[in-house]
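Progress report, Aim 2. The chain analyzed during this reporting quarter is listed below.
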Amino acid sequence: MNGQKVLMKGNEAIAEAAIRAGCRAYFGYPITPQNEIIAYMAKHLMKRGGVFIQAESEVAAVNMVYGASAAGARAMTSSSSPGISLKQEGISYAAGADIPMVIVNVARGGPGLGSISPAQSDYIQSTRGGGHGDYRCIVLAPKSVQECADLTALAFELSDAYRMPAILLADGIIGQMMEGVVLPPALDPAKLPARDWAVGRMAAHRRAARHISSLALVPEELEAKTRARFDRYETVKAAETRFEAVDSDGADVVMVAYGTSARVALGARELARAAGIRAGVFRPITLWPFPAKALGKIAARGKPVLVVEMSLGQMIDDVKLAIFDEADGARPPVKLLGHSGGVIPTEEEVFAAIKRIVEGKT
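Predicted structure tokens for the chain:
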């Protein structure tokens, strides 16, 4: 499959890309609509020198990832929305211990058990840490099966580089859809950068034991560690922000969307062009760090912004912060087209909203 385009589901592309990125430890628990990931790992990972365990629960799975990563392995877990909620304590522990790990969330409708239909209502959970304490996770949002593969590989690189959890946030459509994909080249795990902070193998390396923990009982010491971590987050913001802008500079209306909603917005853009309306699309690829500066420059032109989400308004808060003018407090109009519970916006619906904005009817 090297260099050749193959037909795969998004979930399968995520799993294969993870193995090729050097993931040698996967721990998960079944839940729809991400089950193809755990099934693919069960079939392929051990054949390629890795460890696969279907854990007894989501809580157990994420803590197994913590242990494997602390011992030096590239490790991953995956789930869908309710399962990700159960993993939040372990993700917070990993952030507090500065341990890299990759978490895949193929999101579904909520709250509660909700539905198995695709949704984007885990945005705030993902971009604001999700668990207890002050921390962030790198959050990458694919809009295609190709990006499922590419961003999975990137998630491992960034998680290792900055020693922090990285989340691949896809919705159920992205995980279940099939498209052609060129998979990234396979990396040799033995040639990955050394984790000189990992525990274990003291005798082999003739060194003292190392200790990894998120516990710091002296308040001033914990604050100092957290502030140092947030300094590192500023480096991530400066170096790792990613986005795609399509005809945004000369648009009458700029749509902001990610994942499946971005695909819908791009279709609505074509309908708008056919009607003589210039519509642009701004797509955050990193949901954290959010590409605020890039969107702010586009919004400085003063044209209306339409946020398209498969939630009832979660990313819209980051959009408003990005385009706020600190000098005079002004911002262009921001409208929301949002659905929840697994309802997917249509291109025609988004185009109708664009038309109302241009005609001043909303």
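The longest helix spans residues 219-239. The chain has a mean pLDDT of 95. These observations will guide the mutagenesis work planned for the next reporting period.
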